[in-house]
Amino acid sequence: xxxxxxxxxxxxxxxxxxxxxxxxxxxxxxxxxxxxxxxxxxxxxxxxxxxxxxxxxxxxxxxxxxxxxxxxxxxxxxxxxxxxxxxxxxxxxxxxxxxxxxxxxxxxxxxxxxxxxxxxxxxxxxxxxxxxxxxxxxxxx
Length: 141
Prior knowledge:
The protein is mainly alpha-helical. The protein has one domain (9-140). The chain is 63% helix and 4% strand. The protein contains seven helices and two strands, in the order H-H-H-H-H-E-E-H-H. It has helices at 15-19, 32-59, 62-73, 78-85, 89-97, 109-120, 126-140, and strands at residues 99-101, 104-106. A hairpin with a 2-residue loop joins strand 1 (99-101) and strand 2. The longest helix has 28 residues, at 32-59. 5% of the residues are buried. The mean pLDDT is 87.
């Protein structure tokens, strides 16, 4: 017998029962509004990703870029990044989020990126944000 894993439980049931479950109650059911919102966010992220990558390349140190890339674009956990780079998990966390010293946040890739994006908010991000707002309003109606 294999290892027990609760996420993969199967419960035997009569197919007649399943045929009587309304489609709207299904796990993956999505309304047209849900679908429109999903498409709006997908399109938004496609439009802003080049800007995000440019900011990452221009604002971060090489080590911060490496860690941000692994964390956000390769979906690695901090522990996995630490093992791959042979550094401590706390070091990975400090590279990502900085540290608090004397009540003030110091360093960190994410605060750096937030400041860079705030400086350019009226620039290259204005059109994609406006389009996202329009798309979300349209999907709600």
